[in-house]
Structure formats: structure tokens, C-alpha cells
Design the sequence.
């Protein structure tokens, strides 16, 4: 019986077979998993109504602060976070408060000493928001948190939205009273 010697498979043929096998759907090679995509960012709140107080409304509110307001010492923790003070300094301010008759939400507006502007706080159910604005009623910064817990800074876009709502509320309140 004659034995035939097997010829070695050439490297080129072997490489071609492996390449075909690896590129088939059932082959060993698999496409890398799709890149993980980050979840889309949360939708931005709609722009705040561009609301400010008229001179008449502000004059009314300043009158209420002067005639019906009280001296209030603002918590140093809050004023430090807002950047009004440093190292637990206290600020005493004159403030006027009002209650929304529809929601029972509580709002205060403070005239800050030394021409530093105004502070507004807003208590809604378990949420508290604090806005600092300059004497021209331009928002500087804001905090928000759950009552009884330390607040945290709000990103400026969210702060502008909430601040716009607060300015709108105070404008309506001044017009109605």
C-alpha cells in the first residue's frame, strides 16, 4: 500500500480559513458590545417668567417691611452658604412675612443691611428655598433643602426659575393688598 505524504497546509490558506471563520456570525470573534451611552440629562426647567417688581410694588413691600416687619437674625449657616458672611457671622435684618391663602405656603422678604440687597425665603410643605438678590432685584445665588436639614446650593438655572416664581408671587401679593 502506497502511502502518500500529507503536504503541510500553507500558512496563507490557514489564515484565510481562520479569517472567514472569525467574521461569520457564529464564529469566535464577536463585535465589541455597543458603547454604553450615558443617560440623557434631565430636562431643563422651562425658563422662568421674566418677572420683576415694579417700582410701585417694591415701594409697597418696602413699606410693609418698615411698618409691619420684624428684626430677624438670619442663621449664620445660611448666610455663610450664600456668601453673605463668613465664619458664622450673624446678620440681623428687617423682614416681612406673608402666607399664601390658597396653599398656606409661608414667604418672607428681608432687607439686608449695608445695601446688600434682599433675601427671600419660601416654605412649601417640607421644602425651603432661599434667594439672595441685590438691591436692583437681580438674583445672586440660592439654596434649597428639606425643612430641618441643611440646605444646598441650587444650580443657577433652577434658581432663576424658582426666583422668577417668587418674584411673580410677590408682585401679585403687592397688587392684591
Sequence:
Amino acid at each position: 500500500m502506497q502511502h502518500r505524504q500529507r503536504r503541510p497546509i500553507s500558512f496563507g490558506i490557514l489564515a484565510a480559513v481562520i479569517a472567514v471563520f472569525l467574521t461569520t456570525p457564529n464564529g469566535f470573534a464577536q463585535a465589541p458590545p455597543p458603547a454604553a451611552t450615558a443617560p440623557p440629562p434631565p430636562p431643563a426647567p422651562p425658563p422662568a417668567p421674566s418677572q420683576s417688581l415694579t417700582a410701585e410694588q417694591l415701594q409697597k413691600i418696602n413699606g410693609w417691611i418698615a411698618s409691619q416687619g420684624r428684626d430677624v437674625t438670619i442663621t449664620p449657616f445660611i448666610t455663610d452658604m450664600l456668601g453673605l458672611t463668613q465664619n458664622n457671622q450673624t446678620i440681623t435684618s428687617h423682614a416681612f412675612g406673608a402666607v399664601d391663602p390658597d396653599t398656606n405656603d409661608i414667604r418672607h422678604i428681608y432687607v439686608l443691611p449695608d445695601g446688600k440687597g434682599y433675601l427671600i425665603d419660601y416654605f412649601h410643605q417640607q421644602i425651603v428655598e432661599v434667594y439672595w438678590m441685590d438691591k436692583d432685584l437681580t438674583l445672586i445665588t440660592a439654596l434649597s433643602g428639606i425643612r430641618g436639614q441643611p440646605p444646598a446650593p441650587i444650580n443657577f438655572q433652577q434658581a432663576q426659575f424658582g426666583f422668577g416664581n417668587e418674584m411673580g408671587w410677590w408682585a401679585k401679593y403687592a397688587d392684591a393688598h
